[in-house]
């Protein structure tokens, strides 16, 4: 008999149980904490930039080439791409659930390397980024200037220099996206001055590349050396420039008379930003915001604490009038939900204890199953490490359910032993032996049957199976562990603690109450037995009632709304804002400022509004007409309206808003499954039809979808109506004037787009040198007429001679 060893040596059972508990406590301290199990399919993103290119050019010369190589990567389910009019290409590759994300990232990166030689040189020079993607936003951190003395450029660079890298080192942080751009040496070209000197942007770039280079100087006195040589000196050259003043004094041209032209004579040089596409504010204050994403399967609570600790440490060295604000975070809802489940778990434990005591009617007898519960629950955490589980709502709810199951085995043992003590007048040790001889097999059988019920749930395929796998396995493991405890610790404690019952006629105090309760309960049991006998006699009627219940249940299943996971008030939401295509950044910022002020005025529940211009989070596209507003609400106990309520009211409020389209959505119920709640789908063009016809088809589909009563709102941000000018070159006329066609296009690209020349070093970091036309030469389409191109003789020719615009 299995339990005989523990009956003879109860200390052994107690030590094993203590050991299980200690290992379980150690295990739970290392487990990740999240709201739900990680079930999102792993994704990898590839990002490339083609400065100055429109969306169609990006798609044809960058996106398609990379996609053709990535297609067929092992484990890939599908991929999607987004090419924008600001020259950015983003490809998202989605893999099957369970795929090793590190290996998948490496596979994608290798395939991107195959495509790289075929990409434009400008794209290769800026670099192609391949990284693990995670849509799970952990928090938004923003550097602010409370007194307004620090500029956005200063905050952005301080962020990139000191804060971003420190946060990337925090355990559990997967990625940090800074919405403020790093330093760049911006060379703003004066087209008229260049034309007067018969110079082109290419001449300026050549001069900068020649005079701003990193060339080692070697050393003097190095080996081999004469015996008399005493010292060896390294030579440091001044070829690497670092300040605007250094660049201003670059010689860009030497005239025949010996005079020189400096860069400051034909351009304005400043330490600016590499890209001016994004900006951010927090509650109206200028800021530099960072979006922090969690690593897949990371501990959200631990990561959030690590981030706060890192920020507090960094804050001690912040410059004056610089502070940080956590304006959006998703950890509070995780803490609140886990705390709520733990509270329920404690309540269940107390209720089980009370009920067990009420029926066992002895503190000694009650103590045995109550001690068995925590050992079974805590011991289950050991298997969490083995299976890669996390502490989440579903595993904790499994424990709530398991409390009522794991206590059964211990109660069965206690009641059996107590029966032998009371009816056969045996001592506790002998009664335990007799009882375990009777119930060992049933205890094992019950545990196996219960495990057999739950274990198959863990093998359900797809996301549903992945979601409930941890729930089912948690219950199954805790049940099996409770059976072991019932055969080891429980009989050991029974042989030590149990005594004959004191509940009998004439008893006093609490035992007198239990005696009367037992009489009452016996009467109830008899009445119930009589009722069952009557039901057996009227079996047809009972079967009819049962059939009606089944029919009613089926009807309710078909008529009630269904869903994957119920939506909860996460205390935060966000809104994607889209202005008409072609809207400038300045116009977007004005609309964003108006919406931000209106939200604070209309909804007192709002704590923080983080407004980011230049990116729409709903499609993660960087465009001048897009913006995102992250809204954080005040604590739940201080407001009556939920995040869903407020988001819905914002949708209604801006329904007829003519300046922009505002889509307010709540985060997905399960982090990582998309950007917002609801579901998403892709419409694919399989026949390569005209892009306008395809857009019309998508519009018809959305119109039909929005007419269905089950769908609250269906939308797309796909838009091909981006206004643009098409420049047409009269090639024959240009050739007659001796102007190379390639020079025309490269000059337009350098002036109106930008040209990345090389790098410079400042504050211990490497930054880019970029040339571009100054503001007066690129504000309106007519400004192109101010541009010149040199012919083969070196004489400037105005572009208006051969250029037409549509």
Automatic annotation (TrEMBL):
Where does the chain cross the membrane?
12-33, 341-360, 367-390, 396-418, 439-459, 471-498, 539-557
Family annotation (InterPro entries): AcrB_DN_DC_subdom, Acrflvin-R, SSD
Can you cite an annotated GO cellular component?
plasma membrane
Pfam families, per database record: ACR_tran
Residues in SSD domain copies: 370-496
Domain of life of the organism in this record? Bacteria
> Sorted alphabetically, which SUPFAM superfamilies does this protein's record hold?
Multidrug efflux transporter AcrB pore domain, PN1, PN2, PC1 and PC2 subdomains (SSF82693), Multidrug efflux transporter AcrB TolC docking domain, DN and DC subdomains (SSF82714), Multidrug efflux transporter AcrB transmembrane domain (SSF82866)
State the UniProt keywords alphabetically: Cell inner membrane, Cell membrane, Membrane, Transmembrane, Transmembrane helix, Transport
Write one Gene Ontology MF term.
xenobiotic transmembrane transporter activity
Record's bilayer topology term:
Multi-pass membrane protein
- Chief subcellular location: membrane
Q: Which Gene3D superfamilies match?
A: Multidrug efflux transporter AcrB pore domain (3.30.70.1440), Multidrug efflux transporter AcrB pore domain like (3.30.70.1320), Multidrug efflux transporter AcrB TolC docking domain, DN and DC subdomains (3.30.2090.10), Multidrug efflux transporter AcrB transmembrane domain (1.20.1640.10)
Question: In which compartments does the protein localize?
Answer: Cell inner membrane
Q: What is this protein called?
A: Efflux pump membrane transporter BepE
Q: Which species is listed as the source?
A: Sphingobacterium multivorum
């Amino acid at each position: 008999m299995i339990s005989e060893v523990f009956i003879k040596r109860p200390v052994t059972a107690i030590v094993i149980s203590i050991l299980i508990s200690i290992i379980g406590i150690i295990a739970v301290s290392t487990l990740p904490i999240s709201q739900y199990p990680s079930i999102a399919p792993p994704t990898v993103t590839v990002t490339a930039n083609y400065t100055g290119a429109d969306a169609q050019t990006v798609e044809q010369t960058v996106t398609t080439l990379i996609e053709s190589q990535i297609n067929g990567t092992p484990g890939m389910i599908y991929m999607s791409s987004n090419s924008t009019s600001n020259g950015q290409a983003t490809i998202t590759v989605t893999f099957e659930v369970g795929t090793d994300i590190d290996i998948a990232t490496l596979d994608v990166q290798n395939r991107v390397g195959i495509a790289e030689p075929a990409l434009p040189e400008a794209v290769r020079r800026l670099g192609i980024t391949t990284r693990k993607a995670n849509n799970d936003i952990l928090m938004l951190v923003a550097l602010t200037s409370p007194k307004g003395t620090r500029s956005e450029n200063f905050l952005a660079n301080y962020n990139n220099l000191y804060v971003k890298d420190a946060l990337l080192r925090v355990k559990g942080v997967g990625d940090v996206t800074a919405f403020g751009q790093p330093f760049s040496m911006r060379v703003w070209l004066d087209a008229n001055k260049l034309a007067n000197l018969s110079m082109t942007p290419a001449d300026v770039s050549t001069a900068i590349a020649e005079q701003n280079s990193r060339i080692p100087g070697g050393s003097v006195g190095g080996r081999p050396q004469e015996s008399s040589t005493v010292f060896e000196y390294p030579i440091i050259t001044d070829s690497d420039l670092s300040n605007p003043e250094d660049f201003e004094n670059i010689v860009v041209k030497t005239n025949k008379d010996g005079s020189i032209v400096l860069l400051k004579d034909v351009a304005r040089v400043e330490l600016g930003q590499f890209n001016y596409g994004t900006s951010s504010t927090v509650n109206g204050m200028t800021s530099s915001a960072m979006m922090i994403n969690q690593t897949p399967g990371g501990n959200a609570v631990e990561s959030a604490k690590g981030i706060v600790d890192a920020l507090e440490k960094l804050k001690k060295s912040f410059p004056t009038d610089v502070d940080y604000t956590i304006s959006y975070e998703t950890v509070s809802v995780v803490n609140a939900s886990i705390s709520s489940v733990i509270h329920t778990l404690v309540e269940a434990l107390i209720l089980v204890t009370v009920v067990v005591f009420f029926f066992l009617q002895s503190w000694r007898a009650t103590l045995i199953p109550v001690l068995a519960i925590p050992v079974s629950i805590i011991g289950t955490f050991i298997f969490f490490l083995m299976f890669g589980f996390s502490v989440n709502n579903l595993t904790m709810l499994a424990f709530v359910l398991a409390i009522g199951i794991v206590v059964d085995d211990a109660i069965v043992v206690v009641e059996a032993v107590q029966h032998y003590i009371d009816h056969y007048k045996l001592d506790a040790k002998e009664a335990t032996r007799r009882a375990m001889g009777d119930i060992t097999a049933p205890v094992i059988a019950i545990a196996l049957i219960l495990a057999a019920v739950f274990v198959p749930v863990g093998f359900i395929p797809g996301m549903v199976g992945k979601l409930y796998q941890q729930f089912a396995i948690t219950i199954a493991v805790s049940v099996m562990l409770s059976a072991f405890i019932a055969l080891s610790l429980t009989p050991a404690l029974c042989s030590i603690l149990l005594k004959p019952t004191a509940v009998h006629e004439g008893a006093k105090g609490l035992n007198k109450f239990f005696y009367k309760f037992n009489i009452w309960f016996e009467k109830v049991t008899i009445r119930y037995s009589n009722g069952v006998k009557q039901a057996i006699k009227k079996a047809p009627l009972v079967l009819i009632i049962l059939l009606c219940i089944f029919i009613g249940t089926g009807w309710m299943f078909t008529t009630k709304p269904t869903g994957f996971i119920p939506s909860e008030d996460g205390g935060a939401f966000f809104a994607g804002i889209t202005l008409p295509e072609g809207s400038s950044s300045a116009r977007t910022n004005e609309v964003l400022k108006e919406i931000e002020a209106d939200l604070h005025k209309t909804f007192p529940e709002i704590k923080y509004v983080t407004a980011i211009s230049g990116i729409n989070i709903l499609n993660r596209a960087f465009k001048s007409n897009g913006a995102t507003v992250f809204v954080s609400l005040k604590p739940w106990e201080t407001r009556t309206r939920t995040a869903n309520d407020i988001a819905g009211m914002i949708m209604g409020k801006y329904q007829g808003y003519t300046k922009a389209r505002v889509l307010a959505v709540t985060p997905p119920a399960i982090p990582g499954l998309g950007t917002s709640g609801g579901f998403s789908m892709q419409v694919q063009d399989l026949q390569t039809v005209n892009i306008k016809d395809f857009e019309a088809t998508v519009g018809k589909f959305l119109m039909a979808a929005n007419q269905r009563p089950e769908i609250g709102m269906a939308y797309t941000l796909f838009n091909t109506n981006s206004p643009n000018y098409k420049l047409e070159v009269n090639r024959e006329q240009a050739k007659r004037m001796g102007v190379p066609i390639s020079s025309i296009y490269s000059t337009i690209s350098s002036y109106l787009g930008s040209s990345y020349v090389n790098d410079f070093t400042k504050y211990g970091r490497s930054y880019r040198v970029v040339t571009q036309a100054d503001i007066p030469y690129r504000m309106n389409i007519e400004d192109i007429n101010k541009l010149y191109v040199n012919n083969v003789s070196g004489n400037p020719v105005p572009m208006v001679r051969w250029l037409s615009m549509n």
